[in-house]
Amino acid sequence: MKILDVKVIVCCPGRNFVTVKIVTDEGVYGIGDATLNGRELAVASYLEDHIAPCLIGRDPQQIEDIWQYLYRGCYWRRGAVTMSAIAAIDVALWDIKGKLANMPLYQLLGGRSREGVMVYGHANGADIAETVEEVGRYIDMGYKAVRAQCGIPGLPSTYGVSGDKMYYEPANADLPEENIWSTEKYLNHVPQLFNTLRDRYGFDVHLLHDCHHRLTPIEAGRLGKDLEPYRLFWLEDTVPAELQERFRLIRQHTTTPLAVGEVFNSIYDCNTLITEQLIDYIRSTIVHAGGISHVRRIAALAEIYNVRTGFHGATDLSPVTMGAALHFDTWVPNFGIQEYMRHTEATDDVFPSDYYFKNGYLHVGDTPGHGVDIDESLAAKYPYQRAYLPVNRLQDGTLFNW
Ligand SMILES: O=C(O)C(=O)C[C@H](O)[C@H](O)CO
Ligand SMILES: [Mg+2]
pLDDT for 187-237, tens place per residue? Predict the structure, then answer.
């Protein structure tokens, strides 16, 4: 069997997606997601101009050899663009493998470890009162776990708060929007939100929160300690994690579970965090961390150190990644939770899938492969539209973390 074509499809059904379609000489094809929010065309070019020519004529069944070829053979290893491009090829090859074996991916990986995949939704509001109502709405929809993000008094906007309560897309402008941030205002406000949520809903619902990389280690230690009475499922992205040792200080101050990793793209970004048990959940996901073949290695290392998976699942990860992630989640022994931000209807039309939501869990279907496809003619109706994630400044104008 040989690879005949590696097609890169860029479309924008509500937001930009980059999709790879690997076509073989026996008619079987596989689909992979290569979407990198705000830098989509860099990955599209990496795939079209640098990877595709090397794959024509290769045997698509050699998933591991092709992964090693694209990783070690690149010389300039790792990085978000490189690893997203490798991920897309990897997932498309696993999709082909499943179709050839006539098996859903979770069977190929080792079979079902759980009936359904527990997910968390995103409740958000302009203030505590609205956020509390939104958490209630998610509970009424059957969610067992809800992330709560709310506006901060005195700040015009903040991460995770949107007008549309079922859909959140932060890449929203032709040039980066500038947000304003105050850690002091934030740290004074967040504990009140969770105190109100626990008073209203008790402790049966899992509550999560995302700091989105905006604290220093000691501020993260303080917030983690302030939130301990509310027993969060996790506190996410407390500090930018380029320096993994930063988490040692946080760990000394709080037992609030910590999650990190959605911006990581290889095991080397998290090996210290995992082996020193500085975190409780690793969020590195299939589209940005080298695909199923590499994320499987991260999950295996994490299992040894009692770290569980908690894949990133925002709207800028396409249904292809959600499909592949759900098969992985259905199999992986040290599963934690799966983020589930719903896509637009237009996106779901472009990417038909067989997974479904029921009573707080997502369930994969038994379609061979990952169960997600792309409608190329429909995708062509949604051309790329440049969009950037915002940038963040402190109130004195200092450029900060978004
Ligand atoms: O879903 C999350 O936890 C996020 O932090 C979402 C990110 O801001 C988003 O994926 C960036 O493109
Ligand atoms: Mg996040």
Answer: 999 999 999 999 999 999 999 999 999 999 999 999 999 999 999 999 999
- In angstroms, what is the span from residue 206 Cα to ligand 1's centroid? 19
Nearest CA to ligand 1 atom 4: 314
- One of 2.40.30.160, 3.30.70.260, 3.30.390.10, 3.30.70.60 is the CATH number of 3-104, namely 3.30.390.10
User: With a 6 A CB cut-off, is 37 part of the ligand 1 pocket?
Assistant: yes
Number of alpha carbons in the 13 Å side-chain half-sphere of residue 306:
7
230 counts as catalytic: no
Of 18, 194, 117, the closest CA to residue 365 belongs to: 117
**DSSP string of 111-135, one letter each residue:** --S-SSEEEEEEEEESSHHHHHHHH
Closest ligand 1 atom to the C-alpha of 283? 3
ipTM score of complex: 0.99
Q: Which residues contact 381 (CB under 8 A, 6 or more apart)?
A: none
Those residues of the chain that have pLDDT short of 50 are none
